[in-house]
């Protein structure tokens, strides 16, 4: 397998490029619109054909590049079926693998951050989106989020995976790239060390997080599989413009 972890610094988003060495087919998990040229260049450098873009959920902090990549490469748009987005080519459901060449991604419904959130397992790697972050988790106070649902998603689905499975989150704000299920069970300050549901509720209630500054533009744009709004304020233009530098790992 060909694997690249790519970082978009405006929203601190990780995009994952997975390629099948035998067929040259590839998928991008959680691609970001202002990093589209970086991703196209990486695909070309590796000699890969983009077959799918795959989002973990309807994002509130960035706009997906699914639509633009489809226009530029002919790729198909895959996203959770329960979000009922008319612009998707393939609705992802739990128990129905997504095949990309010889790679078989297993969708896992992990609601809580949003009601339509999915994680994706590939062999011993789990791409957790915003459900499980490194020593943290996504917020649960918008987009039909639910603290109780997120607790169940993590403790009953993700934490039951083998402890040596690698955790690749959708974001990190401290320059961390990877964790393991066992590490999160031990060190996650919100959900680890056997936290009870009541303890998790108290932790999430105390967060007192600010209203997301890009949500009113990102969510409508992502419901169209990646449309940048025409009325975007100047202070937010960097969310949709190409950046001079997009670090990658």
Report on the architecture of this protein.
The chain is of the alpha/beta class and 249 residues long. The chain has a single domain (2-231), classed as Metallo-beta-lactamase, Chain A. It contains six helices and twelve strands. Strands 1-2-3-4-5-6 form a six-stranded mixed beta sheet, covered by helices on one side. β9 and β10 (125-129) form a beta hairpin. It is globular. GO terms for molecular function: metal ion binding; sulfur dioxygenase activity. It comes from Marinobacter daqiaonensis. Residues 12-171 form the Metallo-beta-lactamase domain.
Percent of sequence in beta strands:
15-25%
* Oligomer state of the chains in this structure: single chain
How many extended strands?
Answer: 12
- Overall domain count: 1
CATH superfamily: Ribonuclease Z/Hydroxyacylglutathione hydrolase-like
CATH architecture: 4-Layer Sandwich
Helical residue percent band: 10-25%
Uncertain parts: none
Q: What is the name of the CATH class? A: Alpha Beta
Topology order in helix (H) and strand (E) letters? EEEHEHEEEEEEHEEHHH
Count of helical segments? 6
Q: What is the averaged pLDDT score? A: 95
N- to C-terminal separation? 16 Å
Major β-sheet, in short? 6 strands, mixed
CATH topology: Metallo-beta-lactamase, Chain A
- State Rg: 17 Å
Shape: globular
| Helix-and-strand structural type | alpha/beta
Q: Give me the side-by-side strand order of the main sheet.
A: 1-2-3-4-5-6
GO biological process, one term: glutathione metabolic process
Domain Metallo-beta-lactamase: 12-171
Keywords: Metal-binding
InterPro entries: Metallo-B-lactamas, Mito_Persulfide_Diox, POD-like_MBL-fold, RibonucZ/Hydroxyglut_hydro
């Amino acid at each position: 397998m060909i694997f690249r972890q790519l970082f978009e610094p405006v929203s601190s988003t990780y995009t994952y490029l997975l390629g099948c060495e035998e067929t040259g087919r590839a998928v991008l998990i959680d691609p970001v619109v202002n990093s589209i040229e970086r991703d196209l260049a990486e695909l070309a450098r590796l000699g890969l054909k983009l077959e799918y873009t795959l989002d973990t959920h309807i994002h509130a902090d960035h706009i997906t590049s699914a639509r633009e990549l489809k226009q530029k490469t002919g790729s198909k748009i895959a996203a959770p079926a329960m979000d009922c987005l008319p612009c998707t080519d393939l609705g992802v459901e739990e128990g129905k693998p997504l095949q990309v060449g010889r790679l078989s991604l297993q969708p896992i419904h992990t609601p809580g951050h949003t009601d339509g959130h999915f994680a994706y397992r590939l062999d011993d790697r789990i791409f957790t989106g915003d459900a499980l972050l490194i020593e943290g988790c996504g917020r649960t106070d918008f987009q039909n989020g639910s603290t109780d649902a997120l607790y169940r998603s993590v403790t009953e689905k993700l934490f039951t995976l083998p402890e040596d499975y690698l955790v690749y989150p959708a974001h990190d704000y401290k320059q961390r790239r990877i964790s393991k299920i066992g590490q999160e069970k031990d060190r996650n300050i919100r959900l680890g060390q056997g936290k009870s549901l009541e303890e998790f509720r108290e932790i999430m209630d105390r967060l007192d997080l600010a209203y997301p500054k890009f949500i009113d533009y990102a969510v409508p744009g992502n419901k169209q599989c990646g449309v940048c709004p025409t009325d975007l304020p100047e202070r937010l233009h960097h969310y949709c413009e190409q950046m001079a530098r997009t670090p990658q790992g």
